């Protein structure tokens, strides 16, 4: 089973959209906006949310209870990706991501792998779906180099044309830097 899905496992980012545009939820970022309201809207619009998330997602649970010897935990949303052959845990945050959010998701992934995952499943993935990501946290926390833990930004509306242009330029710059780093690690000369 792992051999059949290994090519998908190597490119998990293809299955994890960033940002996730949730304009169809009809939410506005006002004082009443909170994680419970976001979660309820996602469940009400589950089919649209699954389509926005990407390929192969199936809904498993909302507020899934995980009981350990000492404490109870609740995972906001649990999906199974039948292409990747793994569970995908989503923790919803209506604020900028924090290192505590990352640590919490890392713990959820480890608990899920130990307590829920079947032996023939691939390792569980975790996504902290937040209103704002943080470059420092991505660079200096467990997110850096972790192949099972991701931070993805959600947007309540589609970006403007100017925002799209800026994002394209940012992504191009990131791509070229990653390509340059990969070439340097391989001992080749970067293409200019």
TrEMBL record:
Q: What InterPro entries does its record include? A: PD-DEXK-like_domain, tRNA_endonuc-like_dom_sf, YhcG_C
Q: Gene3D superfamilies per the record?
A: 3.40.1350.10
Q: YhcG PDDEXK nuclease domain location, by residue?
A: 14-168
User: Which GO molecular function terms does the record list?
Assistant: nucleic acid binding
Tell me which stretches of the chain form a coiled coil.
none
PANTHER family (alphabetical): NUCLEASE YHCG-RELATED, UNCHARACTERIZED PROTEIN YHCG-RELATED
Listed name of the protein: YhcG PDDEXK nuclease domain-containing protein
Upper classification of the organism = Bacteria, Bacillati, Bacillota, Clostridia, Lachnospirales
